[in-house]
Give the backbone structure.
Amino acid sequence: VSAHPMELIAAYGEGIDRERAETVDRHIADCDSCRTYARQMERVDALISRREAIAPLPAWQPVPRQRRGGVAVFVAIAAALMLLVTVSVVRERMGERAASSPSSTVNRAAAFLDACAVLAPGAVRVGLAQSPEQRPRRVSTDIQTTSGVVPSIFPTICRHGGPEQRWSDASLLLMRRDGGIDAADMLARAFGGPGSPDVVDDWVATQTDMPRAQMWVGHGRSDGGSDPWWAVAVIVDRYGYVVTHASRDTATRLAAVAYEELVSPGACILIARAAAAAGLPEGSYFGHVDMPLPFAAPTSWKTCSYGEDEAWHGPHLFLRSQPTSREEAEQLLAQVLTQDITFPAERLAPWTALESGTWLTRGRVRLSAGLNAPAQVVDWSGVAVSDGSHFFVVTAATDELALRLARAVSAELARVP
Amino acid sequence: VNESVAPLPVSALRAAEWDAAYREYGPALLRFLRRLSQTRSVAEELVQETFVRAMQAANVPERAQELRPWLYRIATNVAIDRLRRDRRLSFIPFAGSEPAPERDMDQIDLVRRALRAIPADQAAALVLRLHEGFGPHEIAEMLGVSEAAVRSRLVRGRRKFLETYERFGGVA
């Protein structure tokens, strides 16, 4: 027994053997502090033993007052809970399957296959001008022909450029070829076919070094438009897309970047799909697309913001490009989010492990709309996830949203071969 | 709840048994869970979750005398899950921004707060032992650990509780 047998004193109430009990008794007799400690332990027992008042059994919370009570209510509540769980699971699965389901509606397909999620980082990488006026924006998929308006075969079209509707601006028409559309069909109907004001005179099959991909290049023209444009069409796996631009070289480079984004989903695609799965409204990709991180090599992270909200409380995804072990991830935690020069965190809590491979932090920034505008304090949460191969960080306005988005990103990454 | 909600795949008799179990054990479980919860409404939520988990379980005890400890076992797991989750989400304050203890906090609130601040498995063991009166053997069965582990949790829990309670301003 040590000089002060605190452990034994704390165990005294639970019963210890006679020899130890006698030792404790002898010690306590001669030790004021130990006697005090023994009394405190008795007091602890008394405090915890003090009974909570017996309260009336509560009615089930989600039930309207007039329908409370009885077996039926209990069954109904349990059924409702199960229904909620079921709906949640079904929605989650629908979300996961939407991209591959031929029966997906155009809207749903657009949510999970957003051309802007591909074009936004592509525009940055090929060096197109980045300004609020030239942000990637979704454009109508309707096509005006001489015989009326027809829907495009591409459920999602994005254009990076000014407000004018012209194909000489960088544009991406994107679809999944689940509806049985073959290459010839896609090329023939890309711009609406006969009667369309926009046509590509002839598509020429072109060699490409993109694995599994077929590529065609065509020269386009538009009625009433003075600028000719180039179109590059690509089919790879189940995706079909067409990129247009005034420059053939830019269109070709954009097509190559789009290929990379689709084959190995980039940050914009992942955060867009996560946002759709989390029920967020449709957003845009603005500001922090492929933003270089001060602590990292420019090519080692893919980054994307989702929505209009540029500060970290708007959803952001920071995805490490290369495979990252859990140990590397833990080391990188100390750097990521701490050295940003655009929105320096005024306060950043230490990362805390939520579970294996998942960490949470909270940050605070002070934002101002202008030099004389009052500053606004904004809190945000960050969730980092490492599955031993991928490593990414999601930021959002709340813990819950950041966690939901992070889970959705994980699910998306798990589907990537 | 809409009338058209499909019923659970349980027989009416089974549902009636659950209803009786809820009425019989619900109040005691509420009292137990209140000891480990920040607010009464959280405790009520946890009682509901306990019964929902119980109804969904495949291994419901056949004998009535086994039902009480089994429900306590579920309630304990529910409470531990909640304690751990709340702690993960709430103990990440900015440096220096931890709220100061409320000076006029009731003693019973201080006890609850201290219990929530110590390791969840120790808090659960202490409340099961001292508040609910279960023996170490019963607690061991509930928690799925050895009796020695329960005794260890009780001892460490007492010491941790005293330290925490005093840190929050309580006098033991």
